[in-house]
Amino acid sequence: MSKESGAESSQVAHVRDPSSVASPRRKSSRREKSQRSQKPTTFNHPILDDTSMNTAEILVLVTIAVGSVIIYLAIFPPEEEKEQLSTSIFNRPEEPIPEPSVTKDGKKYSTVWPNVPEKHRKCEDGGRHSGSLEVVTWETPEQGLGWGATEADESPSLKAEFEEEMKCNFEKFYEAWPMGFRWTCCGNPGDYKWGCDHHFYPGCRCDNCRFGYRLPAGFLDERNKSPHAKGLSLGQGNVHGQQIN
Question: DSSP code of 33?
């Protein structure tokens, strides 16, 4: 083939439709390869690389970042909160099992009400008592109270009424004297309907625990002296919170 025919074929090849022919790749020199290897590794993000981000997109990113921090702190709490979380509502100590009581004729009966009806569990704050109702069978002489958390001189007749007249019927005794019971989940009297204020933080729905404040000064001492809280392991509230009252 002559030089002229070779030139014509070359010209014909160059006038082809460029869309049908892949563009030739230029071989890179060693210097260019070295420069590319020194560039930091980057990635293209469809939102982060957009210089025209609007306010809504920025708010979405900020919300995601804040949410991630909150989730991280919930899973990995600071050191000063780990001890407090170890006694939270999620791993509370087991409820003590009381000894059965004995009537005058020698019959034993449990002082814990099994299968407490839901109507007694519901609270006004939207929560519910998760524990059991237990009859207060112990005395609290420092407060002048006897069996059933009633006045010491009245407790023998109240006990006889429960065992002999009511035949240890928990429902009848609750209707007559709900203060004679205590909730084992929070140490409150049986008729305490406001909420299950067990004060295990976090998890308690009382105002102080919900907003992270410390319980009122002297509250824990008064609660622990109560006949309804006697012998129970109850929460201490947010011991690291601010004292507001």
Answer: H
pLDDT band at residue 73 under the 50/70/90 scheme:
low
Domain positions in the chain are 89-225
Among all chains, which residue has been given the structure tokens 């420092």?
142
Q: Is 122 helix (H, G, I), strand (E, B) or coil?
A: strand
3-state SS, residue 98: coil
Structural contact between residues 110 and 97, judged by C-beta atoms closer than 8 angstroms: no
The CA distance from 114 to 131, in Å, is 10
Question: What is the 3 state secondary structure string of 45-86?
Answer: CCCCCCCCCCHHHHHHHHHHHHHHHHHHHHHCCCHHHHHHHC
Q: Which amino acid is at 221?
A: D
Q: What is the chain's length?
A: 245
Rg (CA), the chain: 37
d(CA 98, CA 135): 10
Most confident of 14-18, 97-101, 103-107, 204-208: 204-208
Cβ-based neighbours of 238, under 8 Å, separated by 6 or more:
84, 201, 208, 209, 212, 213, 214, 215
State the Cα–Cα distance between residues 28 and 91, nearest whole angstrom: 65
Contact yes or no for 95/132 (Cβ under 8 A) = yes
Mean of the per-residue pLDDT values for the chain?
77
Q: Which amino acid appears at position 65 of this protein?
A: A
Residue 159, amino acid = K
CB atoms within 10 A of CB 168: 16
3-state secondary structure of 24: coil
Task: Locate 105 and state its tokens.
Answer: 């004729």
